[in-house]
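FAQ

Q: What does a record look like?
A: Structure on top, sequence underneath. For example:
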């Protein structure tokens, strides 16, 4: 019978394991070690302290050791680091980081939840700039105090992932000159390149100096030097290029490390020692769609793992169905959410998947209602099964609930037929009678059935430059406001009367504002003998968002006379 559990790490994974164990067993001795000064703090809220949305740093701390003990009889010891594991004796060596005092603690079961550490590469001149990372409450207080006490004006963030983007947004909102530098050609890898251009535009419009496709080469005194030769003034530099799993303790105890460099665990989160579990950012998990091991630094999965470990310790069965990676983010006025596979991940992982893509833009609620906004939605599905593989949504409204629907279907092996058949809540202030997810399912079903053919916004520039025959089926007044250069305007309301203006011997590419009217035009033309017509997925609005950021920062010639973002 397990009488004593020792937990290493007191944030999402560790604290959740401890709390679940107590709910299952009132008599078990539970000791939790955390080398930092705080247990159970809100990692995800850290950047919001910079803008004052979380005004008091003490509010970031969710539980104190005293509260843990009073509410759960959990012995939470802060500023205390486990420095080694004696597997044979089933003991850990513990060090008080304040006094240096060391002692041993025995265990029946040991749970490792050490988390991950920010990656800070050794770049030439790094000692000449003020470097910060954001991983815990101490980090965010240190950064916030420095930039305020030193009257900082120019701040550079290196890395365009969740932390980098959220720090950028919060610093910009309170008036700093912020540069976000990303070595890859885009920020936010949970989104494909075509979708992320909406977010690139939003950062550009809000005054962020967003630099993508350029990496840091070196530093000089308060200056970041990029490979392109650009020099960026920086009173402070936030390093947010990623994290590495904390595996030293596990390695030194001869626990097995997996192929990803994180701790290897089985379906019950047991290491190769039958009495030692591991959870959270330090472990590798099974990706249910790629059928491979991956690292997933998200609080939701960490808490699921914690519950599973506590249940297994108590002999309760638990189900491990793997992970698909669902996440969301707010960037100024836009919200973004993603789940499952992206096209980039499919290609980077060399997955032998036959898939297709639907890109739709629909209103997130009835257009007559205040606050109705376009919602950009991308669905990835397997061909010919229709199995849903992933989705991305970006807009000013509720993108998370749409992606939650897709995430649920993916976990239940749902198809596009299931998606179009879903019965979802409807009222004008909340959505439309045919929600965007239903709409995407309907379009995907049509693609599978071969009802029509499509091209994507990322293909249009090449088509324009090669003088392809593009037809704009919007009304004349819409065309005059802005259109694709060289496109012929034949409104849907006139198309049946102007068939002689449309060639049959070459491909014809049809578009409207959001691809719905042009879809109707495609079907009409196909029935009238045109078998080489294509709908432009995403339409003119999707194309406007796709082209805008690169047109501005690269100073390249636009293929549109004007953009349309509404």
């Amino acid at each position: 019978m397990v009488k004593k559990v020792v937990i290493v790490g007191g944030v999402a994974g560790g604290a959740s394991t401890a709390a679940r164990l107590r709910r299952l067993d009132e008599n078990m001795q539970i000791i939790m070690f955390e080398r930092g000064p705080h247990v159970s703090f809100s990692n995800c809220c850290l950047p919001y302290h910079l803008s004052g949305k979380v005004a008091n740093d003490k509010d970031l701390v969710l539980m104190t050791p005293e509260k843990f003990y009073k509410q759960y009889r959990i012995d939470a010891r802060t500023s205390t680091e486990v420095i080694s594991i004696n597997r044979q004796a089933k003991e850990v060596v513990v060090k008080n980081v304040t006094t240096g005092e060391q002692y041993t603690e025995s265990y029946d079961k040991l749970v490792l939840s050490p988390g991950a550490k920010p990656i800070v590469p050794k770049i030439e001149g790094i000692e000449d700039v003020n470097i910060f990372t954001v991983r815990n409450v101490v980090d965010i207080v240190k950064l916030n105090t420095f930039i305020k006490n030193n009257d900082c004006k120019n701040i550079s963030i290196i890395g365009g992932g969740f932390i980098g983007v959220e720090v950028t947004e919060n610093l910009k909102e309170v008036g700093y000159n912020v540069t976000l530098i990303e070595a890859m050609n885009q920020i936010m890898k949970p989104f494909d390149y075509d979708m992320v251009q909406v977010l690139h535009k939003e950062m550009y419009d809000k005054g962020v100096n967003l630099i993508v496709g350029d990496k840091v080469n070196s530093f000089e005194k308060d200056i970041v030097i990029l490979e392109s030769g650009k020099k960026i003034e920086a009173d402070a530099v936030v390093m947010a290029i990623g994290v590495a799993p904390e595996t030293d303790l596990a390695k030194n105890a001869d626990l097995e490390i997996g192929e990803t460099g994180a701790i290897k665990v089985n379906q019950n989160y047991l290491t190769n020692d039958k009495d030692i579990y591991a959870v959270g950012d330090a472990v590798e998990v099974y990706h249910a769609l790629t059928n491979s091991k991956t690292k997933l630094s998200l609080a939701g999965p960490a808490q699921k793992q914690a519950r599973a470990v506590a249940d297994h310790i108590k002999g309760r069965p638990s189900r491990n169905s793997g992970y698909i990676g669902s996440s969301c983010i707010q960037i100024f006025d836009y919200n973004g959410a993603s789940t499952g596979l992206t096209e980039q991940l499919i290609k980077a992982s060399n997955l032998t998947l036959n898939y297709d893509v639907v890109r739709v833009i629909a209103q997130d609620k009835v257009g007559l209602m205040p606050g109705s906004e376009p919602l950009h939605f991308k669905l990835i599905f397997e061909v010919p099964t229709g199995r849903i593989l992933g989705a991305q949504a970006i807009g000013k409204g509720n993108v998370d609930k749409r992606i939650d629907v897709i995430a649920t279907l993916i976990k239940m092996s749902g198809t596009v037929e299931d998606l179009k058949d879903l019965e979802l809540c409807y009222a004008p202030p909340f959505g439309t009678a045919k929600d965007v997810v239903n709409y995407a399912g309907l379009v995907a079903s049509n693609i599978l059935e071969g009802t029509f053919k499509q091209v994507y916004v990322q293909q249009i520039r090449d088509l324009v430059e090669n003088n392809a025959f593009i037809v704009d089926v919007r009304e004349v007044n819409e065309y005059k406001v802005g259109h694709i250069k060289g496109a012929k305007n034949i409104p849907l309301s006139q198309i049946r009367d102007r068939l002689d203006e449309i060639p049959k011997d070459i491909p014809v590419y049809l578009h409207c504002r959001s691809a719905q009217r042009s879809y109707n035009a495609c079907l009409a033309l196909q029935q009238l003998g045109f078998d080489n017509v294509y709908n432009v997925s995403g339409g003119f609005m999707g194309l406007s968002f796709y082209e805008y950021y690169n047109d501005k920062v690269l100073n390249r010639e636009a293929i549109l006379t004007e953009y349309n973002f509404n």
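Q: Is there anything notable about this one?
A: The longest helix spans residues 539-554.
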